[in-house]
Structure prediction request, 652 residues.
Amino acid sequence: MADFRTSTQRERWIFQSHDLMERWAAANQRAAQTLAQYGTTRLNVDLLDGSVSYPESMPDHVEGSSVVKPLSYEEEQLTRVFYEQKIQEVCAAFKFPHKIQATAIIYFKRFYLQWSVMEHQPKHIMLTCVYASCKVEENHVSAEELGKGIQQDHQIILNNEMILLKTLDFDLIVYAPYRSIEGFIDDLEDFCRAGNGPFQRLKELRQAAISHVDKMMLTDAPLLYTPGQLALAALHKSNDLLRVVDFERYLEIIFSRQHSDCPIEQFVQSINEINYLVDQLNIPTVKDMRHVDRKLKHCWDPSSHDEHNKKKEKKSKHKSKRTSTDAQL
Amino acid sequence: MDGEEAPLGALNLAEYAPAGARTVDCYRRIRKIGEGTYGEVFEAVDIITGERAALKKIKLDDGKEGFPRQILREIKLLKKLDHENIIRLKEIVVSPGSAHGTGGSDDHIYRGDIYMVFEYMDHDLKKVLHHSAPSQVKVYMGQLLKGLQYCHANNVLHRDIKGANLLITGGKLLKLADFGLARLFTRDGTLTNHVITLWYRPPELLLGATSYAEPVDIWSVGCIFAEFLLKKPLFPGRTEQEQLSKIFELCGSPNEESWPGVSKLPLYKTMTIRPATPTKRSLRDILQNFDCPAVELIERMLILNPSQRISAQDALGAAYFIN
Prediction:
């Protein structure tokens, strides 16, 4: 953990709850204003240098007249969780290590702390996050390979790379709880050998904790707490289920060893807060996302909304005809 | 450019993304001052703060794989390192999306240029390497080793230590720069063999080793240290074969007794045919007119067997620095 203490992650990318909410709300409002003013939320991105400009007004758009509604704050939240879970699926399909998966998810979270999902397609940004994560973590996968594996044009992956890197301010090194878990498991082995429990079962505890972190990564916890706190929360939760060691005693030993300024009660509260966020996690299904996806598509490309209306009109005509026929009878 | 407003429709990125990168227009370029590993370097001034900076232009390749991974690696490492004897990366800036090639001082701005912005340093060590007083040499060597010790403590190898990559400001503060060949290492990793400029390259790399660590940088430091005293390069080879010959001439020929494992290095057989007769170490002879503690430290930095070479941390505790 020596590295984390002087990292940009600790210095710049750990927030208070209200800061996160302010940023998300600001991005959401900005996109809504853009929609009202230009008729679309899609921002133009220069592919080479990642610079961004306002969208061109849609041809028939009259300012303030749009019938397309922006996503709500809650709908954006749902969208982010959905695509973060997709990142996990993509990484699992490629058998990427947890480090790459975690790094990609953190990049995605940081990106959408500053942009709305209405401004840049999360489906594309997600892939670029995976690609950038592979590059940064020295796991060489070409954009072509990645694109092929998920039936996407590899150019889509490259198109958003510059804006992603700039939005991250090139803060590329990410510390994830997985490595912290390994450290604590090593420590717990010593704890067990000192007569505090059967270390043979630490393997189970480790695996359960890793699964718990997978869920944890989909919450806001990684933007609010340190990797060490997240790891301990995962181990604590997993130990509650498996009863491998006396975890309260272990925490006391850690704290006495570190002469921590932070009282143990406060730390236990953080652990409980983290696990509360995991308990509250609601991963939307494809079905749940159908309505939101449609709205998103309309924000992105309002002509798709017109198409939708035309179809409605056709149905209406047909009904009218049928009614007329009935009347004849 | 002074009175020019942002192009119509352009976002002020600073409003949108406080953490986002600025554009190169925040800087006024003064002059070109050199070439880094991957591109040109310019002296510049921050228009708002008046602070001087060095803009290092990133050469983009054909874009087939997007942002060059070597640059990402360098940025990643520099963001990780925070030490008074290591060059500080201030930010990354880009040029505006449109071309401005129509004359004036902005001729250099082209579409898609990206720059790493570093703190400005007055000059490199090459300017003073052959005419520094002994007391100044000790100051520079101390700072070099402190910076390097910090890198190694963070599992970062520099892999290109030479005069051109050691920058000096205010006549006395030295910093390690140009991390273009640097990388994180692990004990069991395999690394590329083709690193470190020839005159400062250690024998294990010349013999083809791909499993190496901190000692490769220490060898380079030893060469610099000797060059300070001799006022000329210690091992100025023109080819890899010649480089190795010059090393063995002064440091003795390696064998399994003095360097266990050396005969198994990939290029051992092909590169060491010439010195059929083992030569004895004579480095001390050419350094006999210099300060004993200095010579002693150089000897320990230039041991052929990398596992016996002194570490940066131990070097800082050597007699040379204590007196």
In short: Residues 13-63+73-167 of chain A form a domain with the Cyclin A; domain 1 fold (CATH 1.10.472.10).
